[in-house]
């Protein structure tokens, strides 16, 4: 297949591109390479897949030097004309849309970035898919959409109408927009609610990266909600395997869907929502212990109150993913943390 992956300078997109290339797909990667976090890491991911940072001029398609089936273009999602030209020229079979303005806390101070990238950018992707006969659009949603919901584990059957951050609201908006296009234009769409993804080449703004860096440098780590947090940490390889299976399985309309008792995760239209998480939440203090074991060092801790926009716990019900796609994420937290620490030492300390 010929697949567009947006966000290939990002954490998940980088790994997914490698997975699809390894199995023989033709991949075009797209990323704006914004400075939300260190662009050096983003360029390093691109260089790891054969994209020369010195050649990456905005709008120019760059051929990978290591993967003959991989090309990359630097482009903003908000560039409607550029997105339309790309889709018209390339005629993608499928699209996996992972690019977005990420981060819960950042959305408190930079709200417009989320509207421009996550709302305007998403409608540009939807329109391009609609007008270019794309067979399936898979896109990143987030566990953040569960907001004030306290029923555990989080299920796609639950109400998600009470987000507590603009980031979460933008991801919920993406799900609603996708359903509209599935309904109006018969465009197959699948939303993936990711649960705290971690692993090698991970984002520097995430807890595992921040904690590892601080502990190695002998600095204290900020432990929010006084350590009373739980997260459904999901290893990157599990995420990529799940995303790949989703890409390969376009949704069909749910013939059993009932408008008097509507299932939020499906529709008579070709529309589906999945949770993709480890389905085994880990206490924050146990997560820190796993990092300490991997590093062989003890953390100094600053106990802090919960941050605005944060939720105290996440836990994914992945029954639909298991039933429909035959897959359940399950990498052990210590194994995953060990792999990250090994990468971190090799990347930053060698």
Describe this structure in words.
39% of the residues lie in helices and 16% in strands. The chain has 11 helices and 14 strands. Helix 3 packs parallel to helix 5. The chain is globular. The model has no long low-confidence stretch (mean pLDDT 95).
Per DSSP, the total helix count is 11
- Helix residue percentage: 25-40%
Globular, elongated, flat, extended or rod-shaped: what is the shape? globular
Largest sheet data: 8 strands, mixed
Q: SSE string, helix = H, strand = E? A: EHEHEEHEHHEHEEHEEEHEEHEHH
Itemize the secondary structure elements and their pairings.
Blueprint: E1 2-6, H1 11-22, E2 26-31, H2 39-48, E3 61-63, E4 70-74, H3 80-90, E5 94-97, H4 106-109, H5 111-131, E6 136-142, H6 166-185, E7 189-194, E8 197-198, H7 207-217, E9 221-223, E10 230-231, E11 234-235, H8 236-248, E12 271-276, E13 282-283, H9 284-295, E14 301-303, H10 319-325, H11 333-349
Parallel strand pairs: 1-2, 1-5, 2-4, 5-6, 6-7, 7-12, 8-11, 9-14
Antiparallel strand pairs: 3-4, 10-13
């Amino acid at each position: 297949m010929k697949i567009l992956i947006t966000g290939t300078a990002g954490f998940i997109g980088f790994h997914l591109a490698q997975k699809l290339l390894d199995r023989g797909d033709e991949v075009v990667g797209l990323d704006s390479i914004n400075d939300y976090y260190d662009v050096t890491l983003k360029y390093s991911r691109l260089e790891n897949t054969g994209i020369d940072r010195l050649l990456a001029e905005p709008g120019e398609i760059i051929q990978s030097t290591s993967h003959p089936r991989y090309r990359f273009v630097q482009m903003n999602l908000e560039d409607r004309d550029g997105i339309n030209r790309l889709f018209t020229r390339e005629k993608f079979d499928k699209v996996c849309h992972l690019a977005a303005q990420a981060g819960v806390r950042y959305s408190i101070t930079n709200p417009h970035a989320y509207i421009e990238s996550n709302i305007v950018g998403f409608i540009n992707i939807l329109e391009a898919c609609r007008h270019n006969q794309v067979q399936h659009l898979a896109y990143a949603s987030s566990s953040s959409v569960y907001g004030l919901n306290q029923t555990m584990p989080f299920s796609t059957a639950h109400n998600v109408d009470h987000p507590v951050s603009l980031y979460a609201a933008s991801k919920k908006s993406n799900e609603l927009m996708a359903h509209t296009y599935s309904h109006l234009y018969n465009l197959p769409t699948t939303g993936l609610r990711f649960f705290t993804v971690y692993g090698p080449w991970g984002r520097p703004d995430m807890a595992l990266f921040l904690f590892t860096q601080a502990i190695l440098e002998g600095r204290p780590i900020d432990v929010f909600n006084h350590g009373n947090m739980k997260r459904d940490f999901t290893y990157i390889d599990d995420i990529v395997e799940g995303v790949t299976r989703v890409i390969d399985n376009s949704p069909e309309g749910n013939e059993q869907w009932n408008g008097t008792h509507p299932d939020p995760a499906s529709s008579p239209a070709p529309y589906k929502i999945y949770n993709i998480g480890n389905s085994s939440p880990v206490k924050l203090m146990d997560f820190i212990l796993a990092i300490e074991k991997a590093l062989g060092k003890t953390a100094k801790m600053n106990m802090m109150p919960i941050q605005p926009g944060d939720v105290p716990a996440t836990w994914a019900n992945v029954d639909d993913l298991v039933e429909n796609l035959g897959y359940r994420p399950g990498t052990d937290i210590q194994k995953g943390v060990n792999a990250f620490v090994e990468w971190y030492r090799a990347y930053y300390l060698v």
